[in-house]
Amino acid sequence: MFKDMYIETERLVIRPFTMDDLHDLHAxxxxxxxxxxxxxxxMTLAETERTLSWIIDSYDRNRPRKIIxxxxxxxxxESGELIGWCGLGPLDFDPSQIELYYGLRKQxxxxxxxxxxxxxxxxxxxxxxxxxxxxxxVPPANVASKRVLEKIGMIYRMRVAGLPPDHSAYEGLxxxxxxxxxxxx
Length: 185
Ligand SMILES: CC(C)(COP(=O)(O)OP(=O)(O)OC[C@H]1O[C@@H](n2cnc3c(N)ncnc32)[C@H](O)[C@@H]1OP(=O)(O)O)[C@@H](O)C(=O)NCCC(=O)NCCS
Known about the structure:
N-acetyltransferase, five-stranded antiparallel β-sheet, N-acetyltransferase domain-containing protein, acyltransferase activity, transferring groups other than amino-acyl groups, three-stranded antiparallel β-sheet, GNAT_dom, alpha+beta, single chain, binds coenzyme A, 6 helices
């Protein structure tokens, strides 16, 4: 299910990463603007290689009821270029919840592509992986990401608060959630 997924949308192909994507992915995750609101700093090539290798290794270990982290490549259909990633994985501060995440190279922002990828992966999560609920968290300042969550139908639930000290970095995030019934509506 995870290793051979292939999704086509109007403008995109979404598929598992391979090590051949290394340099294209590095060009994206080394951009300061892309990493601004993400937990990691802009990555070196060696860090990207380690991360990509871990992502690919985890394809075999993910199970529908136990997703470790499932990150896949977002490709522009027209040109075949790798333009970003999207994924599903346990929420760091509450691993019982599966979080939807995404990122695109800066040149591809603003055309609705992130929304197209996020919606397609959420549908995959509900219809193929049979998840009941997907959540999204975003710092209030990341307005574009917040809009993506809203545009795919996610519902704002709360501002994250009251976490233990080891998760204090997540305090204040906006927390959204979506169920299969809501996305199909
Ligand atoms: C978040 C991200 C994927 C959004 O990509 P995108 O291509 O701009 O997304 P879309 O075009 O699908 O939608 C963005 C929406 O935000 C809106 N938006 C973007 N910047 C905005 C701003 N500063 N103020 C108000 N609205 C803004 C856009 O107008 C659009 O909404 P609309 O369709 O209603 O007009 C992209 O900014 C990114 O890769 N950021 C770095 C990684 C990241 O932060 N990921 C999210 C982790 S929480």
